[in-house]
UniProtKB/TrEMBL annotation:
This is DinB-like domain-containing protein. SUPFAM superfamilies: DinB/YfiT-like putative metalloenzymes (SSF109854). InterPro entries: DinB-like, DinB/YfiT-like. Residues 30-177 form the DinB-like domain. It comes from Chryseobacterium shigense. Gene3D superfamilies: dinb family like domain. Pfam families: DinB_2.
């Protein structure tokens, strides 16, 4: 396994996902506040949900990265890298909106407590946190700690896979925002 290629691929995916999410903050108020006919969240609420989910995932990523760095002294990193293969297919459904039922915890539901500028700044900080963790674990150390992920039965995943999951979650909701925007355009075109 080329661990450096994996890290670079995750960085690239993060940049694309976060750049796309950031563009939504520049949409007009009609698009940002449109409540879809299915009763789902507005784009503003989706952006807040992305922030909240990232917040809680980053707590786990921080713990995992610290543990991975501690494990570096006790485990054989070269053997871990040699034996590791990234099962990208296993994760792809996470990035697809509506691909499976996702029951999120209540603390990840938007409350409307934050304005768009606050959310934008916080999401930008979260992007940089992810990059910092990838830079900290730049030699493969992220393989040395696994934590259970119950979403879509992913099971035990390593610190790199947690960061990739976070990026896929953002991608999932970009599709949801596109759906909202499409419905908005149709509704106000009439």
């Amino acid at each position: 396994m080329d661990i450096f290629r994996l890290i670079q691929d995750i960085k690239t995916h993060l940049k694309l996902s976060f750049d796309e999410a950031d563009r939504w903050f520049d949409k007009d108020q009609k698009t940002l506040n449109y409540k879809p006919s299915n009763g789902g969240w507005t784009t503003h609420q989706i952006l807040e949900h992305i922030y909240l989910t990232n917040f809680y995932l980053l707590i786990l990523i921080e713990k995992g990265s610290k543990k991975a760095m501690r494990n570096y002294k006790a485990l054989d990193l070269d053997a871990e890298i040699k034996d590791y293969s990234f099962d990208k297919e296993k994760f792809e459904k996470v990035g697809e909106y509506g691909a499976f039922e996702w029951i999120r915890p209540e603390h990840m539901e938007p409350k409307g407590d934050l304005n768009l500028n606050q959310i934008r700044n916080l999401i930008s900080q979260q992007y940089h946190q992810c990059l910092n963790y990838l830079n900290l674990m730049k030699n493969g150390e992220g393989l040395l700690c696994k934590t259970t992920m119950t979403v879509n039965d992913l099971g035990k995943i390593n610190a790199y896979e947690y960061i990739y999951f976070l990026s896929l979650h953002t991608q999932r909701h970009i599709t949801q925002m596109l759906n909202n925007e499409s419905e908005t355009i149709k509704k106000f075109k009439k």
